[in-house]
Amino acid sequence: MKKICTVFVLLMILLGSHAFAEDGYRLWQRYEQVQDASKLQAYRKAAGEIIIQGNSPTLKVAQQELEMGLNGLLGQAVPTTQQPTQQNILVAGTPSTSALIKELNLSDKLKAAGDEGYLLLTTTKNGRNYTVIAANTDIGVLYGSFHLLRLLQTEQDIAKLSLTSTPKIKHRVLNHWDNLDRTVERGYSGFSLWNWHLLPDYIDQRYIDYARANASIGINGTVLTNVNANALVLTPDYLKKVAALADAFRPYGLKVYLTARFSAPIEIGGLKTADPLDPQVQAWWKQKSDEIYGYVPDFGGFLVKANSEGQPGPQNYGRNHADGANMLADAVAAHGGIVMWRAFVYDDKEPDDRAKQAYNEFKPLDGQFRDNVLVQVKNGPIDFQPREPFHPMFGAMPKTPLMMEFQITQEYLGQGTTLAYLSPMYKETLESDTYAKGKGSTVAKDIDGTLYKHTLTGIAGVANIGTDRNWTGHQFGQANWYTFGRLAWDHTLSSEEIAEEWLRMTFTNNSQFIAPVKSMMLGSHETIVNYMTPLGLHHIMGWSHHYGPGPWIKDKHRADWTSVYYHRADEKGIGFDRTKTGSNAVSQYFPPVAKQFANLKTVPEKYLLWFHHVDWDYKVNSGRTLWNELCYRYSSGVDGVRQMQQTWDKVQGQVDEERFQHVKTFLAIQEKEAKWWRDACLLYFQTFSKRPIPQDLEKPAHTLEHYMSLDPKFVPGI
Ligand code: BDP
């Protein structure tokens, strides 16, 4: 008896700790019971039973998700039936597989839903009340199911639903910079999710939960491997493993893509060349693509980094980017595959400003790419800096569909321990006006195809996901994965709406928590810009690992990887002159933008030192001298982190202690790092400005020599 009791108690403890473990694993899909009593009652009433007619794998997962979600949210089991037995029914399906949906005569409304969209509506028929999730395709049904669950999770009214939702961009893709040895380039949340060693035999539950999370926000593609590619992934042993992942993801509408190493025909094909115009090379890629489609019939295609940072490419053979992209595009075209060819190219042998090189190389190729090629362009012309003006290629290639590449992982944004909500940064780029076809030609319109009437459209996010229990290292890193998906689906959503949704689902619907934490999130990016790279400064981080400040980095084998190349501080002032008197990078923008950026009086202050070399005593908008403004900005960045700490401290008790403490600890690390940035940068720049740090500001804790001697070892993600 005693033994049974002990076992029982142990079991209860285990179950209890499992039920209450808030370690972040469940992301925004926690499905905890709705707290608002009247909402709970309304939801319970609306979802008397679930009916999903049809049994494809995707409909199955929609059913599972609705069951799991509703059981949790409603705190009671909701039966699934095949025919109506109750008064209030939740029905999901397409007219082709569900007689019930067909009878509701939604075909007019469904026209607007397209291939991936859906309708959510409330209606009645034969005296019964229906909450309807309808779509033209099974994946639309799944996306609609997640939307409905989100409405419940965020405690919205579902009594009179009438909405249609369709994605604005076709290919919404995560880029994993994951290596085959499971290290992740620029990854700060553990190792790669893909356990290549155990694949194809072992399918980790994580793969399924990863696919569920992606489907819940509409992400429909995943590039499994690093852009700095390894040709081995294209060999049969690895393709079997890739196929196993593709099989696991397929029900969730998640297509698999691979990075193609341009020299693969030599490395694994035994050819002497990888020249894209060589018929043998073309035949090799064709045959390789056919082979891949044998394993993965719906393989998405290739992502390619070529002739960039030492990667092989068509230029090794005197060919251009279009030659390279087209060869691969031809190889996958018959199977419906696409090629995402990256425009992240620059060369240290090239004397021109690095910011200009991609445009210089790609603009002349406009119109030369095959129909199934997307050119993938980073948001700004350098490299995922805390803040960059939009890339001048946007708007500038009318005949080529351009795909956006955002970085979700925080390589230059404090990495794993920094709370940086990135939606405002993504939106800043998307909403930038290129003036390509006059006012209103935003970057978003180029990406979503409306500017130049492209139907092939795409957006990529460099993933921040790893084996950490909470997936993203920082609990708030999850918000950036979430945001990327939501904006990829609908870039008109506001940062505020997305933050609110995410907070409600991830933490609580309690408004006393939501309001302050949302405003903390919304200000977080600006705070970081202030303590790292205010006023348009860029690329002044630690050498190679990019962790912490390193404005003094110089004399390396590549000038374009040093900090002094970018900030150009001297006795007179600081900043990179990209106007006519300097590199003239401004000339790559359309005239109204070029004019605005080129003029010291009209350039937005946030880009001041990006485009201008400015005197230390120049008066900025605040009326302060540039030097004093720099001091205030750096200091206000540190103050901003302290405010975030205060905000977070005040919500203790409103969320589980486990995640509360985790975030609190990381905020303390962030405060330490912010001071490090402020002190190191101000002391270093002061050696040029020779001006004092204003009296009322906190003084640096150590000497410049101290900061310059810091040399963090084994920083993750290199
Ligand atoms: C830089 C990273 C480097 C990547 C490169 C790229 O430092 O690790 O390989 O971008 O995007 O930001 O190719």
UniProtKB/TrEMBL annotation:
It comes from the Bacteria. InterPro entries: A-glucoronidase_C_sf, GH, Glyco_hydro_67_aGlcAse, Glyco_hydro_67_aGlcAse_N, Glyco_hydro_67_C, Glyco_hydro_67_cat, Hex-like_dom2. Keywords: Carbohydrate metabolism, Glycosidase, Hydrolase, Polysaccharide degradation, Signal, Xylan degradation. Residues 472-696 form the Glycosyl hydrolase family 67 C-terminal domain. It holds the Pfam family Glyco_hydro_67N. Its EC number is 3.2.1.131. GO terms for biological process: glucuronoxylan catabolic process. It is an enzyme of class 3 (hydrolase). Residues 1-21 form the signal peptide. Residues 27-148 form the Alpha glucuronidase N-terminal domain. It catalyses: Hydrolysis of (1->2)-alpha-D-(4-O-methyl)glucuronosyl links in the main chain of hardwood xylans. GO terms for cellular component: extracellular region. Residues 152-471 form the Glycosyl hydrolase family 67 catalytic domain. Belongs to the glycosyl hydrolase 67 family. This is Xylan alpha-1,2-glucuronidase. It comes from Pontibacter korlensis. The lineage of its organism: Bacteria, Pseudomonadati, Bacteroidota, Cytophagia, Cytophagales.
